[in-house]
Specification:
The complex is a heterodimer of chains A (434) and B (369). Chain A has helices spanning 2-8, 37-41, 75-82, 105-108, 122-125, 132-142, 149-162, 168-172, 181-193, 211-228, 239-245, 263-268, 273-280, 330-339, 343-352, 376-389, 395-398, and strands at residues 20-32, 48-60, 64-68, 90-95, 98-99, 115-118, 199-203, 231-236, 248-253, 256-262, 365-368, 399-405, 408-413, 422-424, 427-429. Chain A is of the alpha/beta class. Chain A has an 8-stranded mixed beta sheet, with helices on both faces. A 4-stranded antiparallel beta sheet of chain A has the order 2-1-4-5, with helices on one face. Chain A has a 3-stranded antiparallel beta sheet with strand order 11-13-12. In chain A, α6 (132-142) packs across α7 (149-162) and α7 (149-162) packs across α9. Chain B folds into 2 domains: 33-310, MetI-like (MetI-like fold, Orthogonal Bundle), CATH 1.10.3720.10; 321-365, no CATH class. The model of chain B is unreliable at 1-17, 315-319 and 331-369 (pLDDT under 50). Chain B is globular and about 75 Å long. Classes of the chains: A alpha/beta (434), B mainly alpha (369). The structure holds adenosine-5'-diphosphate, iron/sulfur cluster and magnesium ion.
């Protein structure tokens, strides 16, 4: 039985005509939220979080691909989906001749020899009640690659030496709690490489480590990559390490790749407005001159109800007609304006518009009804005032029609369009500007 | 880049993993005794000593007891009925002309057998079911939880009686039946505890890591979850042992326990001594009663002592004053960092750029490619 499984471990011929180790096509991972079993039974599913929403890219053999984005942008989910640790709700992950998502857990297991993961928190990634020898050597036992303990120890010693946990004898019988964070991450790396993998997905492998050991671990990973012919997917929210470490970078936003290309291109000539904003946020090497993170406006939106059109448009300084302006964008605009007014002016304006709840529904059209004792003309005047106060605000470009109608004010926005990832120069970018 | 050793060379390592494992077990067992203090420690020590004595009595019962548990004559001379304590019968004899002292001593052996057997069965069944239910989840989990909750809600003595009654046909009225009856009573407790800790432990990263390594479910359960979800089992086990002694005695007292021909049992003896009390015959009831009280108390002490020490929600830590090193205005930074973690010390020298004040800042290019 094991021999049969062994024979199944695919290893798409290295250096063949086809240089892609993995081909990801329109990958989707949607999580159902609050969908009670009762609700699902009656087809009334709860909200859906589109953690990964249509991601397409090729992972080239022996490259380091960085997945960069804010927390919540779906980096971890994408990384786990690549390894079949989370079941995608759609799309393909082609590895050799196989489409990983279509395989059962049992049939996936032999592939795990070639596809390994390094976790963010090395303390959590090691079983607290297994010593280092057992932990690092366990993959060999799982895949029945060693016949006895002596053989296992040999391989473990070799792996530990490779990751710089020396003198090895001191570490074999240690438990994770006896090691420092950096040492634990080295042990995790040893465990990941002991099976001779092709691909290592490293999920923020240094973000939980002490400042002083971060560079060491990255250097170690580069050494391992060179010596063992590895391909890396390096997940990080930190552009500085991505610049140092990656051959190519994919910028993620709300479950999508918004820009992907060679690291130098991305850093020297960022195209997507989000990439530009992220790059402005990189701290200068001189700690005294920290450039503040200046993403234009707002927080990262709720992944359960992403913006229409381009999902970055509410924060995008360059957004224009096509970008998908919608009713939900009006509310923060008004609230921002009211923050700057004194109390009397605020009371007057707030009373002009009745219920603001109609602004919470994603739509391209909305009717603003006037408050008690006010007419539609007042509302229109208020909106016009807001527009005159900040004519540069990109939202106004999206307004197609603004007029009083049947006792309310109708605001129509241009129909938006969801930008696809398109080649632009040396990179691919998902933005209507390119 | 040459890979540099990350720690200094230390003392030679004992290369026998076998010995270090034994040492580790001894270390774990000693932990509650070292960590406890005050009343908890007193209970733990007294309980352990008393339990130890009881175990010794049980183990060496054939040497200690002058007669067999069902012996009614010696050298042709019949024992007196309800005879007073004397030189030949230290604790007297009872209504069945058995020697009370021998019955008490043999009874310790019965208790030990039943409790050990019941605990072993309970723990194995409860832990395995809890682990599987918690890990697999879904309908299997729901059904098992339902069954266990109903067992738990059932009056425990009634449950034990029903099981004993049902099994007495097949297994007879001996130790095995009694143990099985007690097992049924205590399984739900282990099931609950193990299932709940499995449900939370399976979310741990190391479980996903095991999956990422290609470990099939049974390996994940046995190698990654098992050791981490049975932490509270020893405490429950000692507390249950005390309870089980009571349950066994109650079963015997009610006549559903071990039959007098099978083994000596304190609860049964108490029952037979009921009528003696009114006629001034005290020895037939006092000695087996004392034995029950003593064993229950001893086991409870151990259990409560362990609970008090190992259960973090109950534990009152001995508060040690925190000693801060005196502040030195111009001291170099290294002095403030504990050097036990050699890697930290070493890597500081080649430290990289970035503001130490900002944890989100990471290495920049000076990290050096
Ligand atoms: N198991 C899960 N169930 C429901 N939602 C999830 C789950 N895992 C992740 N998410 C959601 O998916 C989104 C992406 O998460 P994640 O991939 O962890 O992002 P990142 O790693 O970039 O911080 C988040 O909104 C998160 O709340
Ligand atoms: S499409 Fe481009 S310009 Fe429009 S909102 Fe998105 S990022 Fe901004
Ligand atoms: Mg993450």
């Amino acid at each position: 039985m094991p021999t049969k499984l062994d024979a199944q471990v695919p290893s798409s011929a290295p250096g063949g005509a086809d240089d892609a180790l993995m081909k990801v096509r329109d990958l989707q991972v949607h999580y159902a939220l609050r969908g009670s079993s009762m609700g699902r039974l009656f087809g009334a599913g709860g909200d859906v979080v589109k953690a990964v929403d249509g991601v397409t890219f090729d992972l080239r053999r022996r490259e380091v691909l960085g997945l960069v984005g804010e927390s919540g942008s779906g980096k971890t989910t994408l990384g786990r989906a690549l390894l079949g640790l989370v079941r995608p709700t759609g799309g393909e992950v082609r590895y050799g001749e196989h489409d990983l998502p279509s395989l059962s857990e049992r049939r996936l297991r032999p592939f795990r020899r070639k596809l390994q993961m390094v976790f963010q928190d090395p303390s959590a990634a090691l079983n607290p009640s297994m010593d280092i020898e057992a932990a690092v050597g366990h993959p060999l036992q799982i895949h029945k690659l060693v016949a006895n303990r002596t053989e296992r120890r040999e391989r473990v010693v070799e792996a530990l030496e490779r990751v710089g946990l020396a003198p090895v004898e001191r570490f074999l019988s240690k438990y994770p709690s006896d090691l420092s964070g950096g040492q634990k991450q080295r042990a995790v790396l040893a465990r990941a490489i002991i099976l001779g993998p092709e691909l290592l997905v490293a999920d923020e492998p240094i973000s939980m480590l002490d400042m002083s050991v971060r560079a060491k671990i990255l250097e170690l990973m580069l050494d391992l990559k060179r010596d063992l012919d590895l391909t890396y997917v390096y997940i990080t929210h930190d552009l500085a390490t991505a610049k140092f470490f990656c051959d190519r970078v994919a910028i993620m936003y709300l479950g999508r790749i918004v820009e992907i290309g060679p690291t130098e291109e991305i850093f020297s000539d960022p195209k997507h407005p989000y990439t530009k904003a992220l790059l402005r946020a990189i701290p200068e090497p001189d700690p005294g001159a920290l450039v503040p993170r200046d993403l234009p406006r707002g927080e990262i939106p709720d992944a359960a109800a992403p913006p229409l059109g381009c999902s970055f448009h509410p924060r995008c300084p360059a957004a224009f007609e096509k970008c998908g302006w919608e009713t939900r964008d009006l509310r923060p605009l008004l609230e921002q304006r009211w923050l700057g007014l004194d109390e009397d002016a605020y009371d007057a304006e707030r009373a002009t518009i009745g219920n603001l709840d109609s602004l919470d529904v994603p739509a391209h059209q909305v009717r603003l009804s006037p408050g008690r004792g006010r007419g539609p003309g007042d509302v229109e005047a208020l909106v016009q005032r807001a527009r005159e106060a900040d004519p540069q605000e990109p939202l106004w470009k999206g307004v197609k029609r603004l007029e009083a109608q049947d006792g309310a004010v109708a605001v129509d926005f241009h129909e938006g369009e969801d930008p696809r990832l398109r080649p632009a120069g040396a990179v691919e970018v998902a933005c209507h500007l390119y | 880049m040459a890979i540099t050793p990350t720690v200094e060379v230390g003392e030679p390592q004992h290369d026998s993993t076998h010995r270090s494992r034994l040492a580790r077990i001894a270390f774990v067992i000693a932990t509650p005794y070292r960590q406890s203090a005050g009343i908890a420690r007193a209970m733990l020590v007294v309980g352990t000593v008393l339990t130890g004595l009881m175990v010794l009595v049980a183990v060496f019962a054939p040497l200690i007891a002058p007669y067999d548990f069902d012996q009614v004559s010696d050298g042709g001379a019949r024992f007196p009925k309800q005879g007073e304590p004397s030189g030949t019968h230290w604790f007297g004899t009872n209504v069945q002309t058995f020697d009370v002292f021998s019955r008490v001593v043999w009874g310790a052996r019965t208790e030990l057998k039943v409790v050990l057997m019941a605990l072993a069965l309970t723990i194995v069944i409860g832990v395995v079911l809890g682990l599987v239910a918690g890990f697999v989840g879904g309908w299997l989990d729901r059904i098992l939880v339902l069954i266990m909750d109903s067992l738990f809600a059932f009056p425990y003595l009634l449950l034990a009686i029903v099981v004993a009654f049902l099994l007495s046909d097949k297994l007879g009225g001996g130790v095995t039946t009694a143990a099985a009856a007690i097992t049924a009573v205590y399984i739900p407790q282990y099931f609950r505890v193990v299932r709940n800790s499995t449900v939370s432990a399976k979310e741990a990263t190391y479980v996903e890591a095991a999956r990422a390594l290609g470990a099939p479910p049974h390996i994940i359960m046995s190698r990654y979850l098992f050791t981490n979800v049975i932490q509270s089992v020893p405490v429950i086990a000692t507390l249950n042992a005390a309870d089980a002694v009571g349950t066994l005695a109650a079963l015997g007292f009610l006549g559903y326990g071990i039959q007098p021909t099978e083994a000596a049992e304190w609860g049964y003896d108490l029952n037979r001594a009921m009528d003696d009390a009114t006629s001034g015959i005290w020895w037939t009831a006092v000695y087996p009663g004392l034995a029950i009280v003593l064993l229950v108390m001893a086991l409870t002490f151990v259990g409560e002592g362990l609970n008090e020490t190992l259960n973090p929600t109950l534990r009152v830590r001995r508060l040690l004053p925190v000693v801060l090193p005196p502040r030195q205005p111009a001291a170099p930074v290294e002095n403030a960092i504990p050097v036990e973690k050699a890697e930290v010390g070493r890597d500081r020298r080649t430290g990289v750029g970035g503001s130490p004040a900002d944890p989100e800042t990471s290495t920049t290019e000076e990290g050096g490619r």
